[in-house]
Amino acid sequence: MWAKESIFYQIFPLGFCGAPEDNDQVIHSRILKVEGWIPHMKNIGVDAVYFSPVFESDRHGYDTRDYFRIDCRLGSNEDFKRVCKNLHEAGIRVVLDGVFNHVGRGFWAFQDVLKNRENSVYKDWFFVDFHGDSNYKDGLWYEGWEGHFDLVKLNLRNLEVKNHIFEAIKMWKEDFAIDGLRLDVAYLLDHEFLHELRLFTEGLDPEFFLIGEMLFGDYGQIVNDGMLQSCTNYEVYKGIYSSLNDVNLFEISYSLNRQFGNNASGIYNGKNLMTFVDNHDVSRIASMLKRKEHLPLAYGMLFTIPGIPCLYYGSEWGIEGDKKDGDWKLRPNIELPIENDLTKLIKSFAKVRAGSKAIKYGTYENVLIRNEQLVYLRSFEQEKVLVLVNAISEPFQVDLSRYAVTGRDLLSGAEINMEQGVVMPPYSVQCIQI
Length: 434
Fold this sequence. Notes:
The protein is of the alpha/beta class. The chain has 12 helices and 23 strands. The protein has helices spanning 13-16, 38-43, 77-89, 108-116, 159-176, 191-204, 234-246, 250-260, 285-288, 295-302, 341-354, 357-361, and strands at 8-11, 48-51, 55-57, 64-70, 93-98, 102-104, 128-129, 141-142, 144-145, 148-153, 180-183, 209-212, 230-231, 274-275, 308-312, 363-369, 373-380, 383-390, 396-398, 406-409, 415-417, 422-424, 428-433. Helix 7 runs antiparallel to helix 8. The chain is elongated, with a radius of gyration of 23 Å. The chain starts with 7 loop residues before the first strand and ends with a strand.
């Protein structure tokens, strides 16, 4: 599967393109802005882009009106087809957000239910009680996502609903050549639906990538041979920023060993989960970390631990954004990309990852665990890479001579004599090939 070798870049199109927060029903070709960012994505090593919702919606993208059209605030289907074509020509794959658990109140089939009530041929597409009421005073009750009545839950066991969704996926695959889907709130999706979705997309393209949004719990429930190929690894996301803020690297080392340890205890060995340090739903990593010196360390770990790394637009040069200020503050309109020291470092780590099978595919083993320092070993076939993390302002010397006499620093290319002990600089991540 191509995705396990990729570096993803997430864009929230409605915010990124500066679209109005409410659907004004005016077609505006804002999505073409993405084309100007292709050189930046290529420069930092990105080879797959994940677009948060692009389907026609009521407001924020997750309240779908039409699965067959791009949101008019972003442009036309032809505009987006052009963007996908240019991304593919640049060697960048395209993954779309599949919001299939619920739709918006403006979804055409739900509008028919509101109008025709019991006589609507679409009433079984949803979970409706005509003897109740909603907070919109519709004179009927329906199930919404986690009590949000602007997000109407779909009945994914209804054959017509499934056929409608699958026909939309087929269109996006055939007309836009999309390479996969990220499934919103996958932790809520019916498992039978996920199984049928996997069979359907494999029929379209054996390399079609399905990744689900999972928070915590057992990722293996939906990431398996019969359902999804990947999911979001929130456990490791939390472990990275929390370990750095507390200067307690035992937390992230425990999670990584639990998930990927090169022994029988690695519960997700063989699975390629998506790793990240922030996204459209959580505060930016630059706002989460207590010490700005830890920002490069967060990305150093992101690119060297097991998983598929995903960058969130703007964070690669350290922009801030706090969840308490609202979701739109996390999804800003940014005119031009910036390249600074952090961006250059991320580019270097991306290059290291791209050139190392041990980092892309290898096993994980904790070598040294302290509150302030962590050393782990990534191994694949004959290649071994030691990753050294120092989370404090003082250097630290570690004896790694039992692993090799000499090694090569993959970031600088310098040869390292390991017999005398390796010095870990303050606030650093090193990658030593042995």
